[in-house]
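Slide 14.
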Amino acid sequence: MTAETIVKKLVELFSGHSMEEVEKDDLKMVKDAFHKTDRDQLMELDGYSTYYSKIQQLKQQLEDIQQNHADAKSQINASIILLKNLSESDVDSESSFDLLAYYKQLVEGQFQSAQWDDTELAVFRSKWDFVFEWKDYFLSYTNRNASETNSDYRNLLRQVFSQLPRVEERTRVNLLARVIANYLKRNNLRGFFDKDVLKCGDDFGDKIQDYCQSAFAFVQLVEEETLNDSPTATNWCKKEYDLFQTDSRLAEYVKVGEKNRHFFILTDSHSDLRPANLPNTYQDWFQHITTTNYQLAANNNKQLRRRIRQIAEQIIQSREAIIAELLSS
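Slide 15: predicted structure.
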């Protein structure tokens, strides 16, 4: 029997019954669920003792929350705070299955049938998504004219890559954006890219909305090409900015307008990046860029690392402030 099967059975038992019911008659309910006749046979199951202890402890804490918090809102917030603390200290990141998802199932089983209606359950799931599913940042950039960007920053890229990628890749992929993504990752932030292939709107297409509207912060690499309003192609950088701006889910719980969530990394001064004919639809976006930005020094990799670290620190501060407000609302 796998560890996940053990966890699944235990969560199903504790979700539908009180701890007293599960443990009465010498764990008869547990033994029946596992088709065993005595405790010793249960203990012989690999992982049973560990996971029974974890889930039993969580169940006790949830029953305490139910007893000490009369209203659904405080139960929701207390439960998510409990799970957040567990995720930071007790959930094995190397596990082959998502233990935290089973903990979430146990919380829902504890409160759904007894006290939470559908609206309150939806609030719990929404706050769960913010705390556990959202990424720290969304990185917006363009691959258009990638060869020009890579040429401008070729000395920096040589400092980063032991060997520059082949010419074909240098003409197709914005390597400066890849470096920025790697430095954000070094600061233990989670963003929308994987370890091998960095994605952007040019690659994701219409799926982009889900990605850039599920992040605490918006990081955008701004170049001349970023502000190019082509009549034949979607400007994904502009679209991503608009999508991030218009997402209203967090605003139901948090005063997002007071939080620092935008970080623009400029390859030149904003005045030099500004096209001679800036479209009217770009005015607000460009104004935002001019007020919240980090300008890169040409080909200075050490400064870039420092800049990204500064951005990462501010993203973490903003994320934690948002979550704290979220779990007090």
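Speaker note: Residues 157 and 163 are 9 Å apart (CA to CA).
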